[in-house]
Amino acid sequence: MHCKSLWIKTSAKCINVNVKYMYVELLSVLHFLFSFQNAGDKENMLNILNVLDELLSAGTDRRIHHMISKGGSEALLTALVNSARSFTPNYTILLPLLHLLAKVGYRDRQIGLKAQKADAVLVVLGLLRQNTENSRRAAACLWVLRVFCSSVTTANLLGKNRGLDVVFKLISPHSTKHLRTVNSVLQRFQIYVNCRTAVAKGYIADLLKLYEDWHNNDVNLKNIPIRRALLHCLQCAANSAVGRDALVAEGGISLLFQTTQTCLTMKGLESLVEPAIQLMRKCNPKVPLPLTSDKSVFSFPLPGQPVDDWDADLGLYGKVCNCCLSEDDLETDVNKLRPQPEPDRTLEQLGQYVRLCPELHHDFQDLDSSSEVDESSDDDSTLEGDLNDETQSDQRGSDLPSDRDEHHLHTSDFHKHYLNCSRRGQKGHSSMVDRLLEKYGICIPNHDPRLYAATAANTKSIAGYSILAFPDFWGHLPPQEQEPMAKRPPHVQRKKVFEDIQRLICPEDIINKVIFDMDDHSPQCTPDMCPSSLHFFSKFESGNLRKAIQIRSHEYDLILNADVNSSAFCQWFYFEVSGMVAGVPYRFNIINCEKGNSQYNYGMQPVLYSVRDALEGRPHWVRTGSEISLHIYSHILHSAFSFYTLTFTVMFHHDDDVCYLAYHYPYTYTTLQTHLKMLEKSVDPQKVFFRQQNLCDTLAGNSCSLVTITACPTSRAWKHLPQLRNRPCVVLTARVHPGESNASWVLKGTLEFLCSSDPVAESLREAYIFKIIPMLNPDGVINGNNRCSLTAEDLNRQWLMPDPNLSPTIYHTKGFLYYLNSIGRTPLVFCDYHGHSRKKNVFLYGCSMKETLWQSGSPINTASLKEDPGYRTLAKTLDRIAPAFSFNNCNYLVEKSRASTARVVVWREIGVLRSYTMESTYNGCNQGIYKGLQTGTRELEEMGMKFSQSLLTLRRNAIHYNSRLIHHASALLDLDDRLLDHKSNNCFEDDEPPCMEEIEYSSCSDPFGANELDTEVNGNTSSEEEDEEDADICRDGKQRNNRKSHLVPHYLKQDALETLTIKSGQCNGSNGYLY
């Protein structure tokens, strides 16, 4: 032994020469020494442990992992078992050994299984039982057990051997002694507390009592780590349903609510507030939505299917996530990336689309007279034509007054009695409407309320809507000033959680009264019946509010209707609210949102329209709402899906006003039809060829319009007509997703610009034939859907094989594109206008074979592939001229999950190089001159205009230049070198920075890492008075983070270190450790 001791001392001096081999030799010695357990071996054992600890503490974890790979964990476990099983265990050896094993074992993923194999688990549990009165020994055993429990089987083994009872006995009520042990015990107790045994034994109630005791007695705030550890134990218990139920049953939520309120009044307790709020929120009992059925209120019989034969969960669990892009989703099959312009139908079938190109067949004989209606134009109804058959009028449209003077007519009365588009609703009051329009009406470009009402009578909805929403009837003008993004108040989610928890602990304050219910056709809460509550209504075109429940005097839970024939896709809302008191904050909770994050968490606000303001000359949709938050709440569906709650607070400006709230600026189908009629009347038929035709009828019988816009030839001369018929086509579509109303506003800007007298617009009409389908999903828009058509399917996922009976608008749009391709007029550009709920700015998605292969890491040599880089031209142009556009948000990758979308199918099957999806934010911009501002309809329409202008760059060599054009389009045509101040960012960044508060409350995780464990272990070996050190720990909250060796007791450590310490330069010029 003496020789071996000398070898250890000598070897230690040269340990820097080859550290890796020293690990193996030291472990061999360790095995040897603990096998014989000679009394004279104590100093050598301590020296070995100290050498190991010095080696492992000085470098990185790489040394420890190397030691583990050489059997270090097994050697330490064997040594521990042999030492502990001796007749009189020597704790001078066991304590440093336990400490070292805790450090090494934490970094060994297999330590639990290795401990079981070495029979060390129950040995350490036995040592803990023997030392419950010795805080330092108990702490050491607890750290090792904690490391062992990284294995589930090891934790179960401890549970079967009543390890939970042993650990819990070490947790004491409030005391000023043994604080370190209590803290260590709590951190170890977290491992077991989520099991059913802990609940059965009543430990949840005991933990709550302990937390209350430590909270009440910790007046000097010296025991924050212990209080935090108790909360973490409760969080772990709440990971299981039985734990949450037990915590609620024992009054845990009420206790946490009261103690957290106290913590908020004191500085330095933030570390207790957040876990307590998360715990309350997690334990708040889950309740089903207060609905008789999760299916949509509306159902529609589909061709060839029974009425009830549809999947109630369609789309809820199979939806495609639009928020992120995975490299695994990128298409790597070159054959699927190559354009394949083979039609999916015969040429005979394509012949039906000849009528949709009237400009190619029109003879323009009337160039010198007023333009006549072309035979191919489908004029479904005249402007003042007969209305549809009488539809069943809503109760609000009855009992019409006849002689009331408009001076005494209240805002609510005007809306209630006169905005009815049915035959019955119009009889006897049209003159009154005329007088009101003469008194209050203002000129809104391309809008006529009378024409809107007449057009609305031809709109077919499932519910047979007859009431008109006032904003759609009256019209909208953008506000004069742009509206900044809302600033998120600090701790807004915390405040909302507190208010929600009060529902549970103070049920006597809850009204819980149904104010509006689409499922209930009986008379609901009228102003006479409920004079103190708000009143809601959504039975109008594009409206979506299924149910409104008054929770408190000024708080309402709102439930949205699912898309028709489905039980999913709840996001779009549009409803009327009235009966308010001015200046009072009303809280609205939309409790069945499906998206977990949106721009509402980053400055976006809903929009509001006030009838009173409109009648006073301010017909504006404006952004509104404060304390906006989107977070998970307690409502669930089928116990498998938790909804999110969008909550916001609104203060109305007028008493007893009638207001409308919406997800985004509404744009109805009737608005579109009215707009198209107004545009057709506004253009000069001698200069502008404008035709509105019916592409097809929808399932509900509404017309899907196709608009053709181009320049009329200057004459019928032989050189002018061929020039028109040789113009390339540009195909634009929008509103395939009904909830993306911003797409319609962008397209409105495109339409109005193309019909204007602007020199650039004139050049565009002379350069292109525009084929525009402004609304691909009329039925979805009319009935207030968010994502789908009446088939409960996303129409933008039907482009591969569209069904002519179930998806007629997609089927015929694709067929029309095939027709253009078959006659040699493949569109130069195709763009589908969309809205994006999770990103800012406006940007393009395109298609590139090379970029997709590069991004996916495909081994295919892309140098041999030919691809026209012209697909980037429009994005570069828009980056120069469009303030809201961001080039850096664009991408041109083809994903497998998007294989059936318009963008990809038109690119691949029709052969359109420049096939795009243009995404417009619901929120605003984070770059350029619009940075920090929410986009309004003015900016959206401007984007539509700018997109049109960008098309001019593709035909710059074919247009006729004049002074007016050069003056208006110099920047567009790159005729000057001025730098614009709205360039996109130069680097790609995440869409959003981290939210000020967590969007999701995640399940609890172990807050202690390897470094924290090392610090605790080192602190447990100090020789100072434990109580004094405990006080320092609790005062500081945590110790200095390091792994410096503290294993060997002070009475042995000094001599050992004098023997083993290696000074710089002592070993052949070596400069310290290897790592």
UniProtKB/TrEMBL annotation:
<keyword id="KW-0862">Zinc</keyword>
<dbReference type="InterPro" id="IPR016024">
    <property type="entry name" value="ARM-type_fold"/>
</dbReference>
<keyword id="KW-0378">Hydrolase</keyword>
<feature type="compositionally biased region" description="Acidic residues">
    <location>
        <begin position="369"/>
        <end position="392"/>
    </location>
</feature>
<dbReference type="InterPro" id="IPR050821">
    <property type="entry name" value="Cytosolic_carboxypeptidase"/>
</dbReference>
<feature type="region of interest" description="Disordered">
    <location>
        <begin position="1010"/>
        <end position="1032"/>
    </location>
</feature>
<dbReference type="InterPro" id="IPR040626">
    <property type="entry name" value="Pepdidase_M14_N"/>
</dbReference>
<dbReference type="GO" id="GO:0006508">
    <property type="term" value="P:proteolysis"/>
</dbReference>
<feature type="region of interest" description="Disordered">
    <location>
        <begin position="367"/>
        <end position="408"/>
    </location>
</feature>
<dbReference type="InterPro" id="IPR033852">
    <property type="entry name" value="CBPC1/4"/>
</dbReference>
<dbReference type="GO" id="GO:0004181">
    <property type="term" value="F:metallocarboxypeptidase activity"/>
</dbReference>
<dbReference type="Pfam" id="PF18027">
    <property type="entry name" value="Pepdidase_M14_N"/>
</dbReference>
<keyword id="KW-0479">Metal-binding</keyword>
<dbReference type="Pfam" id="PF25571">
    <property type="entry name" value="TPR_CCP1_N"/>
</dbReference>
<dbReference type="InterPro" id="IPR011989">
    <property type="entry name" value="ARM-like"/>
</dbReference>
<dbReference type="GO" id="GO:0005829">
    <property type="term" value="C:cytosol"/>
</dbReference>
<dbReference type="Pfam" id="PF00246">
    <property type="entry name" value="Peptidase_M14"/>
</dbReference>
<dbReference type="GO" id="GO:0008270">
    <property type="term" value="F:zinc ion binding"/>
</dbReference>
<comment type="similarity">
    <text>Belongs to the peptidase M14 family.</text>
</comment>
<keyword id="KW-0121">Carboxypeptidase</keyword>
<keyword id="KW-0645">Protease</keyword>
<keyword id="KW-0482">Metalloprotease</keyword>
<feature type="domain" description="Peptidase M14">
    <location>
        <begin position="665"/>
        <end position="955"/>
    </location>
</feature>
<feature type="active site" description="Proton donor/acceptor">
    <location>
        <position position="919"/>
    </location>
</feature>
<dbReference type="InterPro" id="IPR000834">
    <property type="entry name" value="Peptidase_M14"/>
</dbReference>
<keyword id="KW-0963">Cytoplasm</keyword>
<protein>
    <recommendedName>
        <fullName>tubulin-glutamate carboxypeptidase</fullName>
        <ecNumber>3.4.17.24</ecNumber>
    </recommendedName>
</protein>
